[in-house]
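Long-time lurker, first post. I've been practising inverse folding by hand and with some scripts of my own, and I keep getting stuck on stretches where the structure tokens seem ambiguous. Below is the full token string for one chain I'm working on. Before anyone asks, I'm not after the true native sequence, just a reasonable design that respects the backbone. If someone could post their per-position residues I'd love to compare against what I wrote down in my notebook.
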């Protein structure tokens, strides 16, 4: 009886824990590509997934001069995280609070502005809204594929 109990304990200790669902490496493929505002003054570009990470940048033009740029990265994980490097400084990190098949909300209440970043697809358009955590002070963006891609 004691030998059986010890054997059961040893077998339990060696058993592997239940496997978690693997983290998808293509979760945000709907975001990838070159996107520009209707007026062509803002451009946002996202790479395809590289091991689950997405790399991007955004540039705002005034006439032909770049007046703002930001590098971006989305890290994979149980809670994907958006990392922003405005003008190369950062990162400012925004963990995902909600994800669907073609939308994601990232939020960080401790950040000054924005505190909430919402991306989603509407047909051939990429939409984005940045705001305070409660949705106030919104900035809305509509992007179309660059060069009519």
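-- Answer (accepted) --
I ran through it position by position. Result:
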């Amino acid at each position: 009886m004691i030998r059986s109990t010890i054997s059961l304990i040893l077998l339990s200790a060696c058993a592997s824990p239940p496997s978690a669902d693997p983290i998808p490496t293509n979760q945000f493929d709907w975001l990838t590509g070159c996107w520009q505002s209707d007026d062509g003054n803002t451009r946002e570009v996202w790479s395809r997934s590289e091991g689950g990470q997405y790399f991007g940048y955004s540039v705002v033009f005034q006439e032909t001069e770049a007046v703002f740029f930001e590098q971006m990265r989305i890290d994979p994980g149980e809670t994907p995280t958006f990392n922003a490097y405005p003008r190369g400084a950062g990162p400012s990190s925004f963990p995902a609070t909600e994800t669907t098949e073609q939308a994601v909300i990232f939020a960080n209440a401790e950040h000054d502005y924005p505190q909430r970043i919402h991306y989603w697809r509407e047909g051939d358009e990429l939409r984005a809204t940045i705001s305070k955590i409660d949705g106030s002070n919104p900035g809305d963006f509509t992007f179309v594929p660059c060069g009519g891609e």
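A couple of notes from the structure itself: Confidence is low (pLDDT under 50) at residues 4-19. Strands lie at 33-37, 42-46, 54-62, 65-75, 81-86, 92-100, 103-107, 116-122, 125-131, 139-145. Happy to go over any region you disagree with.
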